Amino acid sequence: MAAARFIGLLTALSVMAGTAALRAEENIVKTARDAARELEEAAIKLVVAKGEKDRIAALTDTIQAFETALSSLRASLRKVASAQKDIKTRLDLREENISRLIGVLYSIDNEPAPAKLVHPDGPLTTARAGMLLSDVLPRLQRPVEQLKKDLEDLKTLETLQTDSSVVLENGLRELQSARSDLVAAASSREELPRRFIEDPAKTAILIAASESIETFIKGLSIYGLDDLAHPLPDIAEKKGTLAFPVHGRVLRGFNENDAAGIKRPGIVVATTSAAIVTTPAAVTIRYQGDLLDYGLVSILEPQRGILFVFSGLEKTFGKIGEVLPEGSPVGIMGGKPLSAQKILQESVVTGGTYRPETLYVEVRVNEKPQDPLEWFAVKEDEG
Fold first, then answer.
1. Is residue 208 part of a domain?
2. How confident is the model at residue 141 (pLDDT cuts 50, 70, 90)?
3. Does residue 195 belong to any structural domain of this protein?
4. Does the predicted TM-score (pTM) go above 0.85?
5. How confident is the model at residue 245 (pLDDT cuts 50, 70, 90)?
6. How confident is the model at residue 281 (pLDDT cuts 50, 70, 90)?
7. Structural domain of residue 13, as residue ranges?
């Protein structure tokens, strides 16, 4: 009976010693190191950006590089935490099985000689059991080696987590520096080309008379745009390929009800604090400011008849009537950026999915709402 238990335990240990988990953990290490390298490259871009003639464009590109790298690193840290948990679980299971295995071996060694030689099913089965026992001891080497490998992997992951926290802290500090530089540069830049001059009185009257965003957008047509001044390229052919305006994850789709049962003709994107929002194409700023219950809103027109509506911003850039180039910063999300320590904690506790801010996005064509996901090439943030 002890021999049968021994073989069963050895089989369990062998199954646990699979290579799939090893390959996954090796990929995690590579991904984390790649993300750290991307952060270092973004830091170099920040130094260069501060000396560029077009600092706003350079800083915007740098911030996006930081956000992409930090997103990758957060995702990696989440996977590191998960891998550590898996390894510790495997170690606990192996420890229990190996302890039981040692106990079985000890009991076999202390059984009386007749008990070792006589099997209840007869001498033939006894002989087979003896042959199995002579074969199983070398097979014990594999789970023992796997146990050693798991311990080494656990140490590697712990070192990686420590090193990544230092890189993460430096990256967050440099990202905040880049954001501050961008706000200063955008606030002090020379005026951009304008397609029209806002009449504040008309804007105030329009807001007061609007009961919904539909009536407000309809009222925007009272402003006559000079299509000959600073004409913008046709974007119809770019439908489905336009850059997504922010790093984040789609939280609620087009025309889906929110928690209060309210349905809006747009999408909600969950973002990290202080994320930068950029223009998907060259646009005219048709409106910026508070609007109804949408909060701070930016309404952008890439061409006549098409409008992009962004709401939930904490700060906007540019003036009504100005033309912003493609990829320009149009605003920044609110919230206080997380510290490196907090990000490491939430990677374990919440799975690294902490995105406290939300950007609401609408696309309207001839005043009719369309699904924004049909216009943008969505590459969701993993961090």
1. yes
2. low
3. no
4. no
5. very high
6. very high
7. 2-188
Answer yes or no: do 25 and 151 share one domain. Answer: yes
Tell me which residue of 224, 248, 240, 246 sits closest to 301, measured CA to CA.
224
User: Which stretch of 107-111, 139-143, 204-208 has the lowest confidence by average pLDDT?
Assistant: 107-111
CATH number, domain at 309?
Answer: 2.70.70.10
Question: What pLDDT is attached to residue 125?
Answer: 47
What's the pLDDT band for 348 if we cut at 50, 70, 90?
Answer: low
